Amino acid sequence: MKPHLITLLLASSLVFAEDPAPPATKTCQPDKLISAEKFDRPESFADKKKPGTDGWRGGIGTWSIKDGAAYEIQEAPSKNRPNGHEAVCEHIVDLGDYVFTAEFKLGPSPQIGFVCRDSNQPNLHQGRVMITPTAIWIQKMSGIAKETRREELKRIETKLDPDTWHRITVEVCGDHMFAKIDDLTLEASHERFKDRKGRVGFVAKNEGAQFRNVALWSAKAKD
Q1: Closest Cα to residue 133, out of 150, 155, 112, 151?
Q2: Every domain of the chain and the residues it spans
Q3: Residue 117 CB: number of other CB atoms within 10 A?
Q4: Is CB count within 10 Å lower at the N or C end of the chain?
Q5: 1-26 residue pLDDT tens
Q6: Within a 10 A sphere around the Cβ of 163, how many other Cβ atoms?
Q7: 59: phi then psi, degrees, rounded to nearest 5
């Protein structure tokens, strides 16, 4: 076999070996892997609002790599946004159902969220799994900017160590959103979740939340 062909085969094997295995799921069957990003290298983020090496972009706030993970600082107050804005990292997609996994550490951040927005232009808020050190909840959303509206659908009280890495799996299948954080689970249904997704990602308030080993699959309902 020619040397250059061997090199290509080895490179392909390495890529496939690094692809994460789909998680065990309840409602969705993972289908095609859309993105897998460890966030362990500077190239994981490119210039502001441009996608990094695997498509993730730090759209709002300041994102960097610290200790092998994405590290956020929310946007400071400004004339247009007197209260500042939570840090936002998103992947532009065209998806119906999906499965998302990640590891996160709250650190000093009081609140993070795993989010999706619809395929309208501009992309309107659609749904979130919100996490604080004392609670986790699912909310449906609509609108954008000053027109944003939210409705809490399901909440559980808990205690999450902000200095420990936790793992999350989010499944959105039809009108149903299911989330598993470590061994905790919660789920909720709303017609809003059926709408096609144009952006999937995560957000964080203040400074210090970290994210790593993020993966996103298209999905279909289990039989």
Answers
A1: 112
A2: 24-221
A3: 24
A4: C
A5: 554 544 444 444 344 447 999 999 99
A6: 9
A7: -80, -35
Q: How far is CA 125 from CA 7, 18, 196, in A?
A: 44, 32, 12
DSSP assignments along 77-133, one per residue? P-SS-TT-B-EEEEEEEEESSEEEEEEEE-TT-S-EEEEEEESSSSPPEEEEEEE-S
Exposed / middle / buried, residue 99 (Cβ in 10 Å: 0-12, 13-18, 19+): buried
| Rounded-to-integer distance, Cα 37 and Cα 54, Å | 6
How far apart CA 52 and CA 64 sit, in angstroms, is: 11
Query: Going by C-beta distance under 8 Å and a sequence separation of 6 or more, which residues neighbour residue 10?
Result: none
Q: What is the pLDDT of residues 148-191, one digit of tens each?
A: 999 999 999 999 999 999 999 999 999 999 999 999 999 999 99
**Residue whose C-alpha is closest to residue 65's, from 49, 50, 44, 86:** 44
The CATH superfamily assigned to 24-221 is: Exo-inulinase; domain 1 (2.60.120.560)
Instruction: Report pTM.
Output: 0.89
Please, which residues have CB within 8 angstroms of residue 120's CB and are 6 or more apart in sequence?
198
Positive or negative, the CA dihedral 154, 190, 95, 74 is negative
Q: How far is CA 97 from CA 104, 110, 147, 196, 200, in A?
A: 22, 29, 25, 8, 11
Tokens, residue 80: 């247009």
Order of strands, edge to edge, in the sheet holding 112-118? 56-60, 87-95, 197-204, 112-118, 125-131, 135-142, 149-157
- Which SS3 state, helix, strand or coil, does residue 148 take? coil
Residue for token digits 């993970």? 69
